[in-house]
Amino acid sequence: MDMAVIELSRLQFALTALYHFLFVPLTLGLSFMLVIMESIYVMTGREIWRTITRFWGKLFGINFVLGVATGITMEFQFGTNWSYFSHYVGDIFGAPLAIEGLMAFFLEATFVGLMFFGWDKLSKLGHLLTTILVAVGSNLSALWILIANGWMQNPVGAHFNPDTMRMEVNDFMAVLFNPVAQAKFVHTVSAGYVCASVFVLGVSAWYLLRGKWTAVAKRSFTVAAAFGLASSLSVVVLGDESGYALTDNQKMKLASLEAMWHTEPAPAGFALFGLPSVDDKTTYYEVKIPYALGLIATRSLSGEVTGISQLVIKAEERIENGVRAYSALEQLKVDRTNLAAREEFERNKQDLGYAMLLKRFVADPRQASSDDILQAAWSTVPNVPVMFWVFRVMAGLGFFFIAFFAAAFYIASTRRFHCEQGPCRLFMRTAVWVIPLPWIAIEFGWILAEVGRQPWAIEGVLPTFLAASSLTIAQLWTTIIGFTLLYGALAVIEVRLMLATIRKGPFDHHGTAQDGPDHPDDQHASGYRPLPAE
């Protein structure tokens, strides 16, 4: 396989996935924030909360449409760019994607129309139920997608069938309750909640700085501050749980993001700073927090975190076992009644995928030299410098958001919204500039998860370079350029629509005052009008 084709296929999927993931977190978070806002409207009967819900609902709708458009394109790539992947593991991987489409996405797409156009046609409780179903559908979509992705990271509940030469499900419940998938789901949706909270808080702060629509801005700010504080705390806690899941299931990813080249005495320290060197297999200028990594990864002071070099030695052993499985499988292709070959295959079949790593260096794994095996073993190490720094930026932003929302919650609790100068005004300005940061953290989290899995398309089962379709470089460049131009145009449309909606504000103020009242019982004063019916 031409490695240029592989790398271009990876680049295309990475671009579309990263672009799609710009919309998903805001959809996840805004959907539940709309539930909170509309619940307050139903409980209090105050019209201003209806207006607040409809305003943020418009921004949710713009984002939702772009998310759907980009997500559909991404799923098609499994057939166009990764056809052998689809053939080899489609029996397992296709099931969660089908369930997501049939159950979660249809639920979300059906009720999103009722949410937008049913304000004057449904009762208050009926419309609230519709909004709740949209939020549940959005999060269920994420659940099934992450079950599929979690299986790629930790392929449980499936086995290789030598008769069909494919992976097949033997325990769907194991796939469903995969610990890696569950950890990824709760961590990802919590990150989406943080993203939406920062967005709502930043826009509200912008309104407060300009003295426009302060009634809506204050209430939106308060909801975002409380929801964001809870979400940011959960992101850090659940991120810790994800790190714990790596200890048992993806040891190489854990060692790589820590740039831990050699196993350290337990409990290992956590590197705050360092300069990893791939050539020297060491990390220079390390600054460590003693015991921290051992506690995070093993939940004990005696648990050991295995280093990269030791994991490479283990990979060599698994490659050698995989070659035995590969040799037995070749014999079974000729004679399926060969009991000795069947026994040899069953004994080593868990390592068959490791033998496939050798195909990058030699046509027949059975002909591999010791140097080929060593090369293949070191190929199981992902890009350590990228992993190291991407993780630290993501984790640093996670802790920053806790402090950020704590300050916002204090301002909301003490009602210090009107501040002409001093720390309060500085915070409001900061809140506007902070809006892009959650997307940076989330995209870095995706890079960490996917780069950390390399060289595997399916961890320990199918190498990435064997999963791609037989395409040409010209075909790939054509689609990459085409997608980039299309997505660039969609991005411009998205940003312009969002900014136009934000500038217009939450009220229909043709010829009226620009702001609604601060007191909820005066909603018809000062020329205030709720948004008209859709």
Description of the structure:
It is built from 18 helices and 6 strands. It is mainly α. It folds into 2 domains: 3-250 and 382-522, no CATH class; 308-378, no CATH class. The strands form 3 sheets. The protein has a two-stranded antiparallel sheet with strand order 1-2. Strands 3-4 form a two-stranded antiparallel sheet.
Topology record:
Layout: H1 3-20, H2 24-44, H3 47-80, H4 83-117, H5 124-153, E1 158-161, E2 166-169, H6 172-176, H7 179-210, H8 214-249, H9 251-257, E3 270-277, E4 282-289, H10 292-298, H11 308-334, H12 339-348, H13 352-356, H14 370-378, H15 384-414, H16 423-433, H17 437-451, E5 456-458, E6 462-463, H18 473-504
Antiparallel strand pairs: 1-2, 3-4, 5-6
Give the amount of beta strand, in percent.
Answer: 5-15%
Biggest beta sheet attributes: 2 strands, antiparallel
What does the radius of gyration come to?
26 Å
How much is the average pLDDT?
Answer: 87
| Helix and strand composition category | mainly alpha
Give, in spatial order, the strands making up the sheet with the most strands: 1-2
Spans where pLDDT lies below 50 across 5 or more residues: 509-534
Task: Report how far apart the termini are.
Answer: 54 Å
How many helical elements? 18
Q: Please, how many domains? A: 2
Any idea what the shape is? Answer: globular
Oligomer: single chain
Run of helices and strands? HHHHHEEHHHHEEHHHHHHHHEEH
Overall helicity: 55-70%
Give the beta-strand count. Answer: 6
Give a quick precis of the structure:
This protein has 534 residues and is mainly alpha-helical.
